[in-house]
């Protein structure tokens, strides 16, 4: 399939832009990273005219320096040439963790605090995020999940819905997840931990799942939970959120919370919303 599609890949440093560029390159896109902004309009016209690849991707970000001010002026012209903007996003916590793991220096922090550099970058890139056609939040995405999302959008050309719900089971004895938007406590349900043959199993095992869900309280809880989530999701999307973390906790995070998290994921399978699951304590 030959196309003149041009994608501008931009966003926060550490949010996955390099992975996005490499993924599209592997898929057959012509990719150019850190293209000078002065060349962007001519480049967009050239790729539109030639159309020799599946598409073309250009990486432009905070490294452009003062060129970002020029980009704000020419952006309408570039988009008029058919360019689409992919903005890579991630939470401050995720970005800080990634920088500490790689021991890299943020391009705008210098010798100062990392948090300050991230905030400055958000402010400078805000106009691009507001004009983005796609926003992908990689805070909780694995690399393979990001690649799959990119292929859906830019290869298979499926309709894009950037809102993703993460269902997270956890144990209260290990602390409440700091990034949870909604937290539900299921410690009121019968505990398989006290059943000898179930103690060493988890909510991923059929025997534990059936034991927990045989409780009328568990079925009522799931019904009320899905009813509320069904109400909240379109309102969160309308508000502009692009991800939601629903945390379900029990004492140890291996039996009841895992069961209800799995049951909620099953419910999502019958909707048009995207969801992923994590069992923190397993």
TrEMBL record:
* Residues binding ATP, per UniProt: 11-18
In the record, what lineage is assigned to the organism producing the protein? Bacteria, Bacillati, Bacillota, Clostridia, Lachnospirales
Q: What is this protein called?
A: RNase adapter RapZ
Q: Which InterPro entries is this protein grouped with?
A: P-loop_NTPase, RapZ-like, RapZ-like_N, RapZ_C
Residues the record lists as binding GTP:
61-64
A Pfam match: PapZ_C
Report which superkingdom the organism of origin falls in: Bacteria
Q: Which residues form the RapZ-like N-terminal domain?
A: 5-155
All residue ranges annotated as the RapZ C-terminal domain in the record = 166-282
Arranged from A to Z, the UniProt key words for this protein are: ATP-binding, GTP-binding, Nucleotide-binding
Q: Does the keyword Nucleotide-binding apply?
A: yes
């Amino acid at each position: 399939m030959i196309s003149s599609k041009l994608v501008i890949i931009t966003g926060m440093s550490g949010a996955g832009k390099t992975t996005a560029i490499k993924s599209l390159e592997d898929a057959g896109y012509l990719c150019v990273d850190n293209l000078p902004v002065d060349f962007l309009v001519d480049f967009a016209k050239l790729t539109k005219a030639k159309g020799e690849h599946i598409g073309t991707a250009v990486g432009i970000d905070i490294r452009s320096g003062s060129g970002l001010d020029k980009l704000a002026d020419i952006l309408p012209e570039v988009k008029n040439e058919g360019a689409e903007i992919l903005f890579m996003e991630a939470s401050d916590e995720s970005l800080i963790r990634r920088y500490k793991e790689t021991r890299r220096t943020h391009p705008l922090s210098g010798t100062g605090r990392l948090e300050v550099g991230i905030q400055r970058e958000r402010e400078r890139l805000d106009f691009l995020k507001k004009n983005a056609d796609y926003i992908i939040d990689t805070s909780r995405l694995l690399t393979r999940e990001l690649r799959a999302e990119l292929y859906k959008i830019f290869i298979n050309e499926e309709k894009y819905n950037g809102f993703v719900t993460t269902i997270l089971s956890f144990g209260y004895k290990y602390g409440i997840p700091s990034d949870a938007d909604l937290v539900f406590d299921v410690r009121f349900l019968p505990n398989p931990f006290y059943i000898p043959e179930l103690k060493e199993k988890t909510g991923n095992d059929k025997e534990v799942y059936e034991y927990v869900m045989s409780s009328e309280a568990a079925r009522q809880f799931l019904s009320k939970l899905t009813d509320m989530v069904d109400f909240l999701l379109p309102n969160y999307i309308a508000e502009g959120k692009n991800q939601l973390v629903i945390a379900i906790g029990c004492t140890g995070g291996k039996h009841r919370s895992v069961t209800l998290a799995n049951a909620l994921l099953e419910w999502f399978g019958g909707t048009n919303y995207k969801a992923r699951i994590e069992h923190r304590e397993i």
